[in-house]
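Open question from group meeting: does this chain pack into something compact, or does most of it stay loose? Before anyone orders reagents, we agreed to write out a predicted structure and look at it together. Recording both the input and the output here so the notebook holds the full record.
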Amino acid sequence: MAPHLDIASRARQLERDLRGIRHDLHRHPEIGFAERRTSERVQTELAAAGIPFRAGLARGTGVVAHIASGAPAGTAAVALRADMDALPIEERSGLPHASRIAGMMHACGHDGHTAILIGAGRVLASLAQEGALARDVILLFQPAEEGGGGGRLLVEEGCLDGGIIGPPVERVFGLHGWPWLPLGAVGIREGVFFAASDRFGITVRGRGAHAAWPHDGRDPVLAASAIVMALQQIPARDRDPAEPVVVTACTFHAGTATNVIPADAHVGGTVRTVCERTRTMVHRRIAEVVAGIASAHGCTAECVIDDGFPMLRNDARACADARRAVAACAPHLHAVELAHPVMGGEDFSYYAQRVPSCFVALGLQPQGSAPMPVLHADNFDFNDAAIAPGVELMVQLAL
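Structure tokens returned:
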């Protein structure tokens, strides 16, 4: 039997059990750095598979496991990563396995990623027992991808340099369920795949007054509204039209009564860029626009821009490895070259900053059906039919 068919068969044999694990995780979502039950389930599954691990990492819930091979001492390992956290969203899917935790749900498919990596770990452990694993494999079960930067903490704690368990890592691979690609497709992109995702917070200070006598005050609501509109001139006029940039105001808070001009207003939002030079320019222009518009309205303003996740850059050689892995999964999977970067953020970027890495998009959209809900929608659910192909892909990436 060809090796890829054997791996596919092993993955399919695990499918029912992994579906049950995913549904259990989906019913019990936990947000970043609070994934205690999820982490315990991962540890239980690793122990059952005889895979050594270290837990309690990255502020308490991260787990790093090590599958030893017969490779000579000093041989670097390959790492596979899955994120475990959910989002603070009220689920409205109506599914039997819908979230039982108010205000939380797996709206980004991390339950699927975790189940897939558990399955890949089982298959790889069996291959190691059979002497069919050529190099050690590190499994990274990471907390807090949704803005918390759990990947950065695992890197800082030594997950890639042998500081936690197992040998140093020379490659890292990860995947994300992708509802915009059909089931069976694997999206690959060399270079920048995900944008840098930064956050801004603006406080506009004016002078409060009665709403009937606005001339006695300095209206921060009007100034902040003008700032929100003016920020759109940055992507429209300050950058190369061929280069994607996003500046989006997402929160606006001001006032407590309908007949009172408040003393201040607050705006928050995000910046997405795919070039460091442009990233610096956009940060500078936001500060200039905020200060200028506030001054023109007789107000003052404070603007704080926090660096979020860096750009995720896929290494060319690691992408070549990924294409070979996908080819080994044929006919169940096929590679699709993605033409454009994604403007979302992804903290897999912290691994890719340290070692050559590749992050891929695993198609979830069922063939011939209506478009499935997108990521972060309150009715999103990971497609169970992608679990076995995802396991097969992760195993091939390790091989």
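Observations to bring back to the group:
The chain has ten helices and 16 strands.
The domain at 3-195+311-398 is CATH 3.40.630.10 (Aminopeptidase).
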